[in-house]
Amino acid sequence: MVRLRIKKVIDEKGLTMAKVARQADMAYNTVHSLCVDPYKYVNLYTLNRIAEALEVSVRDLLEDAPDDLSKNDNK
Questions:
Q1: What whole-number distance in Å separates Cα of residue 18 and Cα of residue 66?
Q2: Is 52 exposed, middle or buried (0-12, 13-18, 19+ CB in 10 A)?
Q3: Which of 2, 10, 21, 24 could cross-link to 28 by cystine, CB 3.0-4.6 Å?
Q4: Residue 26, domain extent
Q5: Model confidence over 21-70: pLDDT tens digits?
Q6: CA 16 to CA 72: how far, in whole Å?
Q7: Structure confidence at residue 17 (pLDDT)
Q8: Which residues have C-beta within 8 Å of that of residue 47, sequence separation ≥ 6?
Q9: DSSP string, 11-56
Q10: pLDDT tens-digit map of 14-32
Q11: What is the pTM of this model?
Q12: CB of 53 closer than 8 Å to CB of 17
């Protein structure tokens, strides 16, 4: 499973979601929702705009996350 690291990168760079949204020329609510829910669907165009605003690669905004193991606890 893939998880978004947008909020982590914003924090690491000392920026705000509002500033990133302005730099990416997108709605604050879009950036906010992707920060609040790191498993939310995002298209590559949006992810690329955020990456450019943060001056990082798209790869830096993604990380591997373990699948929810609680699904397998029903054995």
A1: 30
A2: middle
A3: 21
A4: 2-59
A5: 999 999 999 999 999 999 999 999 999 999 999 999 999 999 998 876 54
A6: 38
A7: 98
A8: 58, 61
A9: HHTT--HHHHHHHHTS-HHHHHHHHH-TTS---HHHHHHHHHHHTS
A10: 999 999 999 999 999 999 9
A11: 0.85
A12: no
The CATH number assigned to the domain holding 17 equals 1.10.260.40
Task: Give CA–CA dist 46/27, Å, rounded.
Answer: 11
Distance CA 54, CA 49 (A): 9
> What pLDDT does 69 receive?
52
Q: How many domains does the chain have?
A: 1
Residue appearing with tokens 């990082």: 56
Q: 6, 50 in Cβ contact below 8 A?
A: yes
Has residue 25 been placed in a domain?
yes
**What is the amino acid identity at position 51?**
A
